Structures
1.
Amino acid sequence: MAKYVYLFSEGNASMRNLLGGKGANLAEMTGLGLPVPRGFTVTTEACTRFYNDGKVIAKEIEDEIFATLSKLEEIVGKKFGDPENPLLVSVRSGARVSMPGMMDTILNLGLNDEVVEGLAKLTQNPRFAYDSYRRFIMMFSDVVMGIDRMKFEKLMDEIKEKKGVSADTELDAGDMKTLSERYKELYLKEMGVPFPQDPKVQLIEAVKAVFRSWENPRAVVYRRLNDIPSDWGTAVNVQEMVFGNMGNDSGTGVAFTRDPSTGEKKLYGEFLMNAQGEDVVAGIRTPQPIDVLKEINPDVYNQFVEIAEKLEKHYRDMQDMEFTIEHGKLFMLQTRNGKRTAQAALKIAVDLVNEGMITKEEALLRVDPKQLDTLLHPQFDPKALKAAKPIAKGLAASPGAATGKIYFSAEEAAQAYNAGEKLIILVRLETSPEDIEGMHVSQGILTGRGGMTSHAAVVARGMGKCCVVGCGEIIINEEEGYFIDKNGRRYNKGDWISLDGSTGNVYGEKLPTVAPEMTGYFGTLMKWADEVRVLKVRTNADTPRDAQQALKFGAEGIGLCRTEHMFFDSDRIGAMREMIVARTEEQRRKALEKLLPMQRSDFEELFRVMKGYPVTIRFLDPPLHEFLPKEEEDIQAIAAEMGITAEELKAIITELHEFNPMLGHRGCRLAVSYPEIAEMQTRAVIEAAINVKKEGLNVVPEIMIPLVGDVKELKYVKDVVVKTAEAIIKETGVELEYRVGTMIEVPRAAITADEIAKEAEFFSFGTNDLTQMTFGFSRDDAGKFLEEYYSKKIYEFDPFAKLDQTGVGELIRIAAEKGRKTRANIKMGICGEHGGDPSSIEFCHNVGLDYVSCSPYRVPIARLAAAQAQVRNPRNKKA
Amino acid sequence: MAKYVYLFSEGNASMRNLLGGKGANLAEMTGLGLPVPRGFTVTTEACTRFYNDGKVIAKEIEDEIFATLSKLEEIVGKKFGDPENPLLVSVRSGARVSMPGMMDTILNLGLNDEVVEGLAKLTQNPRFAYDSYRRFIMMFSDVVMGIDRMKFEKLMDEIKEKKGVSADTELDAGDMKTLSERYKELYLKEMGVPFPQDPKVQLIEAVKAVFRSWENPRAVVYRRLNDIPSDWGTAVNVQEMVFGNMGNDSGTGVAFTRDPSTGEKKLYGEFLMNAQGEDVVAGIRTPQPIDVLKEINPDVYNQFVEIAEKLEKHYRDMQDMEFTIEHGKLFMLQTRNGKRTAQAALKIAVDLVNEGMITKEEALLRVDPKQLDTLLHPQFDPKALKAAKPIAKGLAASPGAATGKIYFSAEEAAQAYNAGEKLIILVRLETSPEDIEGMHVSQGILTGRGGMTSHAAVVARGMGKCCVVGCGEIIINEEEGYFIDKNGRRYNKGDWISLDGSTGNVYGEKLPTVAPEMTGYFGTLMKWADEVRVLKVRTNADTPRDAQQALKFGAEGIGLCRTEHMFFDSDRIGAMREMIVARTEEQRRKALEKLLPMQRSDFEELFRVMKGYPVTIRFLDPPLHEFLPKEEEDIQAIAAEMGITAEELKAIITELHEFNPMLGHRGCRLAVSYPEIAEMQTRAVIEAAINVKKEGLNVVPEIMIPLVGDVKELKYVKDVVVKTAEAIIKETGVELEYRVGTMIEVPRAAITADEIAKEAEFFSFGTNDLTQMTFGFSRDDAGKFLEEYYSKKIYEFDPFAKLDQTGVGELIRIAAEKGRKTRANIKMGICGEHGGDPSSIEFCHNVGLDYVSCSPYRVPIARLAAAQAQVRNPRNKKA
């Protein structure tokens, strides 16, 4: 029979999957002899069982919980529900990976009408006892029963109003007792039954609530954004209460062993005396820096510093710890590997290697490739920054520069985003888990309240978003949608501001940004990554400018140059349209003649920039109607320009109309219909390569035929390419190597890859189209129903962002295997957007591809992800 | 080293793949000691080699041809190019399967200026010699060099005009000599070089021409229509000439051992005295029935009858033979299994079993399932037929009834077809291979000239089309597009006529047709088929009428009932639209309430008709916008009807617009978004089944969820179905078995079929969508480029008509295997249009599916094809 409940003393850090991160670390700290309040963990397997059983806790699990509770009572020497000597517990969730703010916590569980009186006597502090009771009733009602918290707050406000006071601290024991009575009445009214007095009932209901919260919408969204499978489940930690709010010799705080923002090696944290843990994290009162504790209670401070050092050495990573001081005694409530900014992650990883704590390979695994994004995105232009004057300053919670239009609610931000706005700043008094989606779509977050460990700060750092918190200098009116800066100027919804997440400065204008420099720790880690990885990293680039940027970021070639993008320029679209409108091959060839020199010079430039690195050029791919105008006035204008009537042009547009353009006349199908297009493009590539070769650069162009589904299709186009290329090579007398390959982006191509490899000298997996066709939905149309799929947990991630390894991945596996069977050394890469996604890159590594190709700004991410893949699953470097 | 050339005496009938059908049978007849003019065959492998070598005959093959020619000279005792004793040969193509009229033939090869004089002396018949020479020059110029035959005809006409005669026979030896001189001049003018005098050059050029003709557009089209792979190639038969045109003791003819139209056991054929073979086949002169030969030359007739019987016994099938009589001596030029009508095929197959010549299993293989189509399609309504008066009578060349609008060229017919017209009759003076496509799109063919073995007759029988030939009673003017009947009435392009292919009658009106009766030979063969086959045959039917029809044809259940078709009825579309326009679940449920009783009664009727056979009901599949109006006036009208403004309706239509509807919000995605639709449909199915069950019928409905790509998607919808169904079963207290399964039509479903089988109780392969998504093109859009694909030989068949076994088939194989791995006894079928295609049915059999489902009229075809599959590749019947 499975064991579903573990005392902290029975577990350790390696049991993270079973006990959750928090539970495993509490067990580990217990084992290390640190002062941890005693308790036990209900396992993640119990959670999974809960869902499998239809959201019910099985009898055997309930029995095991109570049996372990009895053991805990014995150890602690207190009894659940005993007014003389009551055991009170906290109930907290704890999944495998930390999900900050996502899960719900209940404190002071075990209180009831009798026990609260006993507690008052025992502590000789009736105010504390009744404050604890009314807090518990509210938390239980809110978290377990789903009664709106605001209704309780209102009762509190009524009492304060009646007494003519404004702060909670001004209420006395009697007020708190009254309040707990009123809270119970409210509970009865809302639920139809009295507030449960049996602590065991309270406990089981709380455990269920934690399990249920695993499926609350915030948690589901968080998991989707962070690639956490829903079948992991959460554990529940039941722990003896310790109270930071027992008076001025009590307190609570959080701290990091290194600065989570910069990575600097020094204890970094905040605390509040006479407070419970939630008060610090929620950002309601602004806490004091950890150093201040040294003055208040040097013994406790020194003990904490010692523990912190011990924990960092033990875990060999920067720790994020929670502690409580009860009547001058220190208790450790949590430790975990601390979340950190990308900059801090890099510095800590490199420092730990230099300190001899970890190896280079381990260091590579310590940085989340996705985090690098923040380092790679633009910073403010220093000149503009120098000239700009801040309108306010807050805490620099998460670095980077952000500029955007302001919105005052997560919904507004999301709406603006969906309407196509990309530069958004979310401005809030403080954030809560409900704001996650809104934060996700924003460039930066600005809050009026809260400290460096407030919700906004922690989440923004995790997301790698620029964030300024606790900016009390501005007055925010969320409801009416404006804020007033320190000079009295008003900023309305939609106005531009800029945030500097590294200084905390806020600017009342749109500031220009510049590309970041990559040096120091970044460079070191990237060097290590390059030493380790076997997967090459190329870039998707259509212009010399993009190619240049990608080279700076370490790209080793172009994996996808989309030639059609070259035709959209205003000076070219004319000739392109002429080509499309052509009714005879002759007319078409005439138009193509005009396009030839443009394409040729584009390729020359690209080859020059890429200095001998491989360049893969994809031939014309989109349906031709994409190049034609859609609006009446444009049609009129363009027809005139083209020397035909608007009616003629409309007739052509109608003729080119397709029911399903994604599944229409595009890709190599165009070249099959009009081989002269492939001929022109071959001429442009080969002549450009020869010209650049004459300048002394070695160029081996790779010509890629898109949308192939049958080897004969590829052969037909390849024959055109080879015939044209060979003729030019013969004409010019310049020897030139070149390759002809194909995209694998149609399911049939994957299935028949053995046939296709007979003709293709390389494969490039076009996972955007392959995903669309394998799933049978188009990216443009799926938006309408994907939200339903996420909320109903049918899909847990966006298959266009993260490769679907089960379905699409299986096709890639089949294709790679079949391709190699025919042509052992066939070069294979991926050029869909998945090429920049770490988990997809790991898949590419495991399946034996030679390279990934991604957008320029994703190149460093890909380099690191490729290195991590090699550390996790080493494979031989190809000869 | 491969052997590329075989003397007839070196081959036999089993070498068909190498020698082609004609060559193998000539060899076989030679072996049987029949009077066959001697010769040799250049193999199909030589043809393949010719193409691989870049359309060049390799030196070694050329050498082998000439070496074999020398042997032939020795055997025959004549010499190629020797004026004293010249060897003349015919050069004919011969592929593995006969392709009537597709390939080009050259006669009298070996003639030149010297030889023709020798021949004149030798035969003492200068007219014959020079007629042969000028024919040879013309054929060589036309077939080998591609010079327009009309230019030669014109020279002939000039001479006739000058002499004031009208028939060729009125020209004398001198005229023929003059003509051959003129022909040579024309050749020189056209080609820039003189007509080749070296017979060896003539021979090699002719062989090349035959090889090239394998790729001529007519041949390519024919192969596509008949599923013949292009890599088979054609052989070339070089054979000593015998002359049917040497005078009145000479002649030529074709005959069948049984009547190819009815199957009646009697010698059936036609001949012409003093004629060459082409004269009979081309239908220029109308030949005499074979019986007449008995009177003209009883010895030859008796000898021929004896040979015919011998051949039929030898080949154990009805033979189609060509013969020539030269100066009273009989020569066999060809034998092959004769093409026949569906009726004849059935009768012959059953008769041969009864005569003890073949087994029942062999008999099943003797009927092409596709041919049954003709038997299954409507005949004229007997009453209407009785009342109708024929306007003309021709030869009943291919049975069946056809009614349609008349067109006078293949192009016009094809245009009308492409414009959406489905009832077309092609009216021609005579047909030629260029007309194939036009014949294909027509319901029937009527010609003014030619006999039962003319091009039109042979091809129409092959296609299973109704055909009346040699209808001299009408005067056809192809150019101006009309014909005049025997009463002087004029019928213009686009007028309606009707053809009776069983009587030869032509009617000047549109006649109503009725469904055919299936009895006699048909019934016998179908009974044998049912005894043999293991694959079940179901039908795709949405209405009780279709279901009834299918049952008559032997369907064993409904494999696909498309529920959406039930919503398009004018009395239902209103409620459907109301459902689509609904903005809330409540509104939607209200509209669904209206649809429920309609669906329920539909299903009740269907269940009643199907009398306990399984019925698979697919839930709503198409995108919702398909149900909304498109034209401005319709929008106005429907908005008014729905009680909303036109603007509101337009907004809804716009909102529902999809870029790629095929890849959009449809199938189970609708049920995921609006589970209440699945709920209503489940209710309709289950309640209907219970109601009908109460009437005493056993119903086990199968609910099919479309467009599933992920098991969780299926599970979500299945949960809705099961919950609803169980509630109803509980409510009513009636026990009901039902199954929930899915379509496998998205590539991802095939790839993850092991997962999907955890939830699906059955799979139905939706090969229409699966083909679209696997190839990455939509049926609606592919028309634009598929023609190029056929003409460039990238595709050899339409993947929507015949299953692509390499790609789509591989996915089916994978899915079937994975599905069985999870659920060993999972029921699997196919319900795409491929379910009615014989080669696809064979695939389904081989891959182990349980059933195929096809349109009602295809059911008998499927039954026969399934039986053939079992005869060819026996598999165990499922328990």
2.
Amino acid sequence: MKDIQSQADHRRINIKKVGVKDISYPITVLDKAKLVQHTVAMVNMYVSLPHRFKGTHMSRFIEILNRFHGKIGLKSFRPLLEEMKRKLEAQAAHVELQFPYFLKKARGRANAIGMAEYRCRMHGSLDDEEEELTLEVQVPITPLLPAQDTEGLPRSPGRWGVANVQLRFRHFIWIEDLIQMVEEVISHKRWAISPVTPEESSLSVESVTSALGERLASHPDIRRFTVTVENLAEGYSTFASLEWPYNEDESADELVSALPCRSTAGLN
Amino acid sequence: MKDIQSQADHRRINIKKVGVKDISYPITVLDKAKLVQHTVAMVNMYVSLPHRFKGTHMSRFIEILNRFHGKIGLKSFRPLLEEMKRKLEAQAAHVELQFPYFLKKARGRANAIGMAEYRCRMHGSLDDEEEELTLEVQVPITPLLPAQDTEGLPRSPGRWGVANVQLRFRHFIWIEDLIQMVEEVISHKRWAISPVTPEESSLSVESVTSALGERLASHPDIRRFTVTVENLAEGYSTFASLEWPYNEDESADELVSALPCRSTAGLN
Amino acid sequence: MKDIQSQADHRRINIKKVGVKDISYPITVLDKAKLVQHTVAMVNMYVSLPHRFKGTHMSRFIEILNRFHGKIGLKSFRPLLEEMKRKLEAQAAHVELQFPYFLKKARGRANAIGMAEYRCRMHGSLDDEEEELTLEVQVPITPLLPAQDTEGLPRSPGRWGVANVQLRFRHFIWIEDLIQMVEEVISHKRWAISPVTPEESSLSVESVTSALGERLASHPDIRRFTVTVENLAEGYSTFASLEWPYNEDESADELVSALPCRSTAGLN
Amino acid sequence: MKDIQSQADHRRINIKKVGVKDISYPITVLDKAKLVQHTVAMVNMYVSLPHRFKGTHMSRFIEILNRFHGKIGLKSFRPLLEEMKRKLEAQAAHVELQFPYFLKKARGRANAIGMAEYRCRMHGSLDDEEEELTLEVQVPITPLLPAQDTEGLPRSPGRWGVANVQLRFRHFIWIEDLIQMVEEVISHKRWAISPVTPEESSLSVESVTSALGERLASHPDIRRFTVTVENLAEGYSTFASLEWPYNEDESADELVSALPCRSTAGLN
């Protein structure tokens, strides 16, 4: 009797996901301008197991990763997911990449480093029928710079904050184009911390979030998105976020997570 | 015409959440043994705004936090959430605390530090009708220590991994009791990396996840939970996770997040 | 012959330091106002071994730490160092504490959280004859806030940067007093990113570093110090540093380290 | 009178270093096998100013960095330092690079990822007469794996620890060769947590530190080095370190720093 009960419980208490994570790996990302960009990613690979599944061979994740060696990137998401799903007899396969993405800065600011860094995360999944690709990009926000020193010594007003955009495509969008879209909204209006002229908008997490929301919602290739704008204050941050399409439901589970800023995956 | 369209869009592209985050704050946590434990938390406070809401007063979060000064803790979750909801005219209020929790180690191991650290996260929310409290605890896993040096020089076999338990209560459970439950499962069986006697079980992310799942599912005060067990390998980790009750649906959104190890909330 | 050579090498290739590190531990720090402040420290304890020493008992560090349990703090530095030196038969003993220190904010800014966090590090050492105590404090720097919104909605101009002061005493100085000294210099002058009136000074890493250097050098209780001021720019930082007394020698070893930003690992 | 005093103080309280730091930048490193390896570095560039120097042009660091764009690496250390020294009229110039370095794993372990990551730091400096290059590498240490599961499911015994080697050359040594030297020492002896056969050595921070010290001291191209070996225990680490040539002097300033684990900030 007891064994049957135990079996019943067993059927309901099943491992749902297994995989490997926190693999630091050099990858190449397809880049609109240069074709190939070399960067270093933190890679997670995992599968969703069918109900009642017995176990899996962890070593297969590593074998698959090694087979795609040096060619992990957007182009290889689909075949990578397919191979994971097949080799691991899984219901769904997932790959997550987190990496810094670099763009040449064309804006002629004297103090701008030649390469701007944007933190990105991609999450590709392949379920029974459907492939999903979620792209997340962090774009730094800098307010209007006060007039520069006459001797050409640029001074930084500090870091105002960051916009975090997470979206799903209808059709593929280049990371560059997404970043440009966000930067246009940020620079289009003359945002100022304390507007003094009628042309200037008040720079606040709410106003920037709304402006980004309107811009992204009007893009035909974007199916869903979440925008979070964060303003670094003294000792804390303020933030606002919106999602589109608006979801009335509120999952109490939802945590303020987004892309971890410099999260350190390891031992310290 | 265009304006009407634009207004329609506006109604749908609304700020959903606003708040403050990454506030480092000394808190007191009620502790089964000592009544009060002092620790330092990373605090997030935010509200879900009703549809069509105009804006909010960020300074009110800080005012509320200051009013509860020194008394942020489990006991004050409910009044804190209520005040946030009322003062900010919000539909739902959320407070997240992330903090290290310390327990005296009774196990007489020569090399055990007197205070064991467990990273915890609490997320309390108050929606129109309902209060929810999610508790998350990280418990380190150490395999059977090989026989010690005779001169009493304990050697560490290294760090095997960590169990992460996230749950919702039916009735309140002390953090201590949850940690003890997890540690009992981990130490109950004689886990070994390579079992040599019949009494020993093979230490794997799957086997520990399943054992923890069975134990937690049988606890009357636990309503829902997720368990993730991680094994640190050379240069990466393997992991397994389960959730209970088992949810057939697979949200492609779900990311391998759990409690960030040493997540750095700031700019670096 | 070869063995003698090998022994000779052995005598020169000796372990110099052994110890324990990265222990997250709740501590109490003596606080000018409240007498006792509870916080969480990252603790390192290590000893310098005399030339030719054979080995040491790592477990003794833990035994000593456990004996001082709950009372690790400034007051106990000397007895802790003495016990380490004696029990481990060491030539010198070292204790490092890294912790967030909280001060009540009296400045009536609407958006100031009630508790300001300052990251501190203390390094105490006891050599044959001499005790040394090095104190390091990080003080955030915020430029002049533009005039606030009339509705009392404070907006953050972002994070300008941070001043890092590391010093050795002639006579004990309270952490509060050191912080106050630094904040006075920062707020005394009307620093502005782009000065428009003659009363305002240009806020730059060089100007703030110099102003802090002059203030600290004139304090009778400070024997040596290093000041580093950092300005967060878009994607990088600029910094300036000075040390006093000025040291002409340049050790190529010296790295830009200072207190790591957000490495207060106890918090996560 | 007071002014003269003040001027005297001024002469002694001079800015000593200025520069830029925490720049995330894609770099290429010369690689023994593949000639060029792409990775992402955290870059610091700074100069030591001559006594009494007035100020510097921060923008020049960025201009110089941009000029070397895409070609920051070992080969360009010397010209980079020379240009910094000249353009900034400095007494000494410093460049620090911190980056993950990847090597193909030839060891046929089933669970080994194809690319092993080693964290490296290089610090080049050019003083009036002399160039100095310091190289630092972190090599993970894994104890003898217990016999593997018969089904080929490799199990990780966890992470034992890490060896950190910092050295100055007499003649250039490839990073690969340094890593290989360290890995040979670690794997040459049959280290075991609890040795059971006479061939096995006891794996302890002291024994591994000594073995590495002897190996490195016998290398003709190494002029100076420091070795630190760290063993991850439950909730803390133990460590031992030695430096060669042995330095009797003990600077109380020396902190347990070494390469921060997972601070390769470009990755997150």
